[in-house]
Amino acid sequence: MSQKFRYKNYLLWFAQEHVDFRVAEMDSIFGMFNIKYNSIVKNKIHPFWVVQLDSEDDARKIASRSILLRYVIELWAFSTDLSCLNLQLQTEEVELVSTHMSSTFKIIVETFGKHFTQKEKIDKIENFKYLPYKGTVSLKDPDKILYYIEYYGLDANNVPEKPENVFFGRWITDGQRNLMKELSLKQRKFIGNTSMDPQLSVIMVNQTKAKEGDIILDPFVGTGSVLISAAKFGAYTLGADIDYQTLHARTRPSRITQKVREKDESVAANMKQYGIQDRYLDVIVSDFTKSAWRSCFQIDAIVTDPPYGIRESVEKIGTSKDSVSISEEQADSHIPSKVDYALPHLFKDLLNFAAEHLKMDGRVVFWFPIFRKTFTSEQLPVHPCLELVANSEQVLSSHSSRLLLTYEKTKEVESDDPPCVIGEDNFRDLFFNEREEKRKVRRARKCEERARMKREWEKRVMASVSSGDSAS
Amino acid sequence: MKLLTHNMLSSKSLKGVVVGYPLKIEAYDVKVTEVEFNPEFIAKVIPKIDYSVLIRAAEYLGHVGKLPGHVPENVEKNTDFLKEVHHALLEVEVVKGDLVCPESGRRFPITDGIPNMLLNEDEV
């Protein structure tokens, strides 16, 4: 009995979006705050988990970071059957229920997988007449919000008559879904063609476990869309990018309605827009392969969306010429030439950089594009100092995906470490070959179609000519 | 560019350069902006930086204030000291200037507060 009141059950209700990221995000957040929990229902695909937590405070901490979480409910009763739920509320949980029934409240009915009218929902509330209400109903500003939730499963083509699960409890707090609107790219001052969507950028930052007062680096920073989420959670942000034009906002504007960029567009201006300029350190123009950071510079977390060579080119400073020299007069205005930078090499360099600069247990989080047909997990990078702790997939098209990979530093670099290994599959080549193949198939099909139409047309002409002949 | 960033930058990737640290600063435009004071962060950062490099950079920019020559003991409780370090690390910014490699004299320009650390193809 005492055990039961020490740990309460909480319902974590998730958005049914980016489902493959849910377990990873939650593991990171629980780990970040060092929260222990027992899970009672922890399903990979259903939009809810039931967990036991030490305190309501733990629930609030989790919700303060998660963008995949809609809300947390202190669960009073849950069952597969409404009559069982009623019984639980009337008998077992009567003490818990009555402590919250003396102030103003309202009951919200939510259903998943089946639609009900407002009238039907009110009828569902009527079922709870047996609750020992002492307070009054207040729809506008209640002290307590109670939720009754019916879950009808995920199969939209086969919705059951009765709900699969029913839940009743007290709303504790919302997750961070509001950040999607608050950090929306539509209202952001400075964006580029590949600025990261706010929801995914929050997930990325949560994967790093970066918290208040940490230093986080994005070595392929672009317009700084990932760092905004990091700064929002109180981390101090640093960025680097090889593209001078991007960091100085001299590239063509990405908005169709915008002819020229405004003079004051920058990563710093974005931080100011969101009121997080205190957490902005700097961005620098720098080639990742020629690091400008001193060797002993220690970082708490690294997070990045490197270029994949599809929408943004993958480049480093270099030349194909044998020997070049740039005279002193030229040097001031010289724009260094760039060469292609093979994607597997970029990832190797990224992991080596992370192993050198991360603090112990620090994390590096990045997107890894894959070609779905030929991908096997053996192609993932393996590093002696870093352990792969999470891997979530976002499907991009019928043939490609990207994986959000999270590695954690497990040991310091030593001179006799084996090298970092990675599959030499070049995503860019596979991507464009596949596209070329598909185009060829499409072209051949069209060609055939045209030939068929032509034959039919000729047949018709012949027929009309011969029938015309007979008429005359 | 803030002095915290300066403390972390080097020109070691230049051909022929061994340490490339610290970079000299030549500033033409320096700005001071108020940044929220976060004592825990400053206390955490102090062991990670090269304090003497910070002192020299702050001195050069005329913002050394009351910073002592060495890090005192019990930093966490020394709010006055943390505030001084906070000011030098985060509030003083070089908007326009150059970073100069101590070994080769190569200049890295700072424009609109953003240092350009790119090397030319003949320097790598």
From TrEMBL, chain A:
Assign the protein's first listed, main location to one coarse class.
Answer: cytoplasm
- Which reaction(s) does the protein catalyse, per the Swiss-Prot or TrEMBL entry? guanosine(10) in tRNA + S-adenosyl-L-methionine = N(2)-methylguanosine(10) in tRNA + S-adenosyl-L-homocysteine + H(+)
Q: What class of enzyme is it?
A: transferase
Any idea which GO molecular function terms this record carries? tRNA (guanine(10)-N2)-methyltransferase activity; tRNA binding
Domain (Ribosomal RNA large subunit methyltransferase K/L-like methyltransferase) spans 187-312
- Which UniProt keywords are present, listed alphabetically? Cytoplasm, Methyltransferase, RNA-binding, S-adenosyl-L-methionine, Transferase, tRNA processing, tRNA-binding
Q: Which GO terms describe its cellular component?
A: cytoplasm; tRNA methyltransferase complex
- Residue limits of the tRNA (guanine(10)-N(2))-methyltransferase TRMT11 N-terminal domain? 8-177
GO biological process terms held by the UniProt record: methylation; tRNA processing
Q: Which Pfam families match?
A: Tmrp11_N (PF25904), UPF0020 (PF01170)
Compartments, as annotated in UniProt: Cytoplasm
EC assignment: 2.1.1.214
Instruction: Give the Gene3D superfamilies listed for this entry.
Output: Vaccinia Virus protein VP39
Question: InterPro entries of this UniProt entry?
Answer: DNA_methylase_N6_adenine_CS, RlmKL-like_Mtase, SAM-dependent_MTases_sf, TRMT11, TRMT11_N
Q: Which PANTHER family match?
A: RNA METHYLASE-RELATED, TRNA (GUANINE(10)-N2)-METHYLTRANSFERASE HOMOLOG
Write out the function statement from the record.
Catalytic subunit of the TRMT11-TRM112 methyltransferase complex, that specifically mediates the S-adenosyl-L-methionine-dependent N(2)-methylation of guanosine nucleotide at position 10 (m2G10) in tRNAs. This is one of the major tRNA (guanine-N(2))-methyltransferases.
Q: Indicate the quaternary assembly.
A: Part of the heterodimeric TRMT11-TRM112 methyltransferase complex; this complex forms an active tRNA methyltransferase, where TRMT112 acts as an activator of the catalytic subunit TRMT11.
Family membership noted in the UniProt record: Belongs to the class I-like SAM-binding methyltransferase superfamily. TRM11 methyltransferase family.
Protein name in UniProt = tRNA (guanine(10)-N(2))-methyltransferase TRMT11
Per the UniProt record, the source organism is Trichogramma kaykai
From TrEMBL, chain B:
Q: What InterPro entries does this protein map onto? A: Trm112 (IPR039127), Trm112-like (IPR005651)
This protein's source sits in the domain of life called Eukaryota
What CDD domains has UniProt attached to this entry? Trm112-like
UniProt-listed SUPFAM superfamilies: Trm112p-like
Q: Which Gene3D superfamilies match?
A: 2.20.25.10
What family name appears in the similarity comment? Belongs to the TRM112 family.
PANTHER family given in the database record:
MULTIFUNCTIONAL METHYLTRANSFERASE SUBUNIT TRM112-LIKE PROTEIN (PTHR12773:SF0), UPF0315 PROTEIN-RELATED (PTHR12773)
Its recorded name reads Multifunctional methyltransferase subunit TRM112-like protein
Which species does the entry assign this protein to? Answer: Trichogramma kaykai
The top of its lineage is:
Eukaryota, Metazoa, Ecdysozoa, Arthropoda, Hexapoda
